[in-house]
Write a structure and sequence with these properties.
single chain; alpha+beta; 60s Ribosomal Protein L30, Chain: A; Phosphoribosyl-aminoimidazole Synthetase, Chain A, domain 2; 2 domains; 4-stranded mixed sheet; 9 helices; globular; ATP binding; PurM-like_N
Length: 318
């Protein structure tokens, strides 16, 4: 099967009338007046970001989700996406399932695939996603906007995806029941696009949690030239973990576990009630976990007032 056969059979579907999609040297679309364009790219590498035996339908879904999550963090809406795939062999069964998962999400959120590339790799599957979005001019939620006395919030639960990953990779004891409770968090994450939209004009800064809460919150602190405290006992996670794992395993996963794709954001105290209302309206769990301070650094504080020593870092490729 040739490169062009793959593209035509699995990755060429109709797009909006005002777009030129797959099939030409470039895709074309018009940007709306009064909007900034938001662009993000992610790479997913076999045996680094996903296991070789992962369900290709879920992988198609997740591949797009990780980039949509970047748009969500900035309050942007998706416009279109580009897809690149490198693989050793053109496995038609795998491609059919991957494209099914990809397009199911693409259609759901209104993010048409308008271009990309396919090539042969020497080893393993490599997936590259570029998303293009738009956000009203001047309303993007950036990392560098945190202010002193902001509250720090996080959506959803932390740690479950990391626990599933560590079970599959034999880094913690295999527990089939625990894996069944956590595997969806790893393989079927969802980008918080609606939350990102609702936080425009409410949050001062935001980031999606891809490399772990501590590492990603630190990006906000560094960009804003500020510090923070986080109340460990306020961090949200599935209480089922308490019955299955040691406190140290839970701590590592909720502080440093990646692949979460929830939003961490800061907002002034005067927006507290608005955030509670957003949580109710969207039916999304939002947890107040700490605050922003002027002194650089990050303290993790327990209920008894003690501070966690030697905070471990999150995921890093290098």
């Amino acid at each position: 099967m040739s490169e062009f056969d793959i593209i035509k059979k699995y990755f060429s579907r109709p797009v909006k009338q005002d777009m030129l999609g797959v099939g030409d040297d470039c895709a074309l679309f018009s940007a709306a007046n009064g909007f900034d364009i938001a662009v993000s790219k992610d790479l997913l590498i076999e045996d680094i970001h996903f296991f070789h035996d992962v369900d290709p339908i879920s992988l198609g879904h997740k591949s797009l989700t990780v980039s949509l999550s970047d748009l969500a963090a900035m309050g942007a809406s998706p416009l279109a996406c580009l897809l690149g795939i490198a693989m050793p062999v053109a496995n038609e069964k795998w491609l059919a399932k991957f494209s099914e998962g990809f397009y199911n999400l693409s259609n759901c959120v209104g993010c048409p695939l308008i271009g990309g590339d396919t090539v042969r790799s020497q080893q393993g599957i490599i997936i590259s996603i570029t998303v293009l979005g738009q956000v009203p001019f001047g309303q993007a939620i950036r990392r560098d906007g945190a202010q002193i006395d902001d509250e720090i919030w996080v959506s959803g639960d932390l740690g479950s995806a990391d626990i599933a990953c560590r079970i599959i990779s034999s880094k913690i004891e295999n527990n089939k029941f625990l894996l069944s409770r956590t595997i969806n968090s790893l393989e079927w994450p969802n980008a918080r696009l609606n939350l990102g939209h609702s936080l425009r004009g409410v949050a001062n800064s935001a980031i999606d949690i891809s490399d772990g809460l501590i590492q990603d919150l630190t990006h906000i602190l560094n960009a804003s030239n500020l510090g923070a405290f986080v109340y460990y006992d306020n961090l949200p996670f599935d209480n089922f973990l308490l019955d299955s794992l040691s406190k140290d395993d839970i701590k590592k996963s909720i502080l440093n576990g990646g692949d979460v794709y929830e939003l961490c954001f800061t907002a002034p105290k005067c927006q507290h009630n608005n955030i509670i209302n957003i949580s109710k309206e969207l039916n999304i769990k939002l947890s107040l976990i700490g605050g922003i301070v002027s002194k650089r650094g990050l303290d993790i504080i327990y209920n008894d007032g003690s501070i966690l020593d030697n905070i471990p870092s999150g995921f890093s490729h290098f």
